[in-house]
């Protein structure tokens, strides 16, 4: 019996991905990895969409804030009514200036909220958060799923690498060692199993 594990290298000495889609045994860890991997890809797609909408919102409306000069000459730029009221509560702003700043901030926030609803930014943010929570739940399930083949072990190690290492070629312990183990599994997976 042979276990098929294909390792793809994009840069010399680093594993870019593992092909779990081709000729793998029915290992529950591989099945769990596939679900988790699909969820992480969906999370990444939703994250890019949310970031695109956020940039559009910031460029079109700007972050809700007001600029105020305090009586001691310091300038503050509160971005929420709470922060504005904290600045006003310090008693270092004329009441008329404070009331105008509060009205300006409320108007800016209303423009932000209206454009947010129009382009769906908050909905995209919620969808990204939901997808990330699902991926996290699936990662936990993967870690609790016993592997019954080298492919299953490789799947679990791949998830550890993708979630844990700061970059694909991180040289800090344990990332090179885990990549080395994945390379070993790939090499051994191409040989007939003893027995």
Strand portion = 5-15%
Radius of gyration: 26 Å
Query: Mean pLDDT across all residues, rounded?
Result: 83
What separation lies between the terminal Cα atoms?
9 Å
Number of strands: 4
Q: What is the structural class?
A: mainly alpha
Written as H for each helix and E for each strand, in order along the chain, the element string is EEHEEHHHHH
Write the layout of secondary structure elements.
Elements: E1 6-11, E2 14-19, H1 28-60, E3 68-69, E4 75-76, H2 81-89, H3 95-119, H4 121-144, H5 150-164, H6 175-189
Antiparallel strand pairs: 1-2, 3-4
Helix pairs in contact: 1-4, 1-5, 2-3, 5-6
Describe the structure.
By secondary structure, this protein is mainly alpha-helical. 62% of the residues lie in helices and 8% in strands. The chain has helices at residues 28-60, 81-89, 95-119, 121-144, 150-164, 175-189; strands spanning 6-11, 14-19, 68-69, 75-76. The chain has a two-stranded antiparallel ribbon with strand order 1-2. It has a two-stranded antiparallel ribbon with strand order 3-4. A hairpin with a 5-residue loop joins strand 3 and strand 4 (75-76). Helix 1 (28-60) packs parallel to helix 5 (150-164). The chain is elongated, with a radius of gyration of 26 Å. The termini are close together. The model is unreliable at 1-18 (pLDDT under 50).
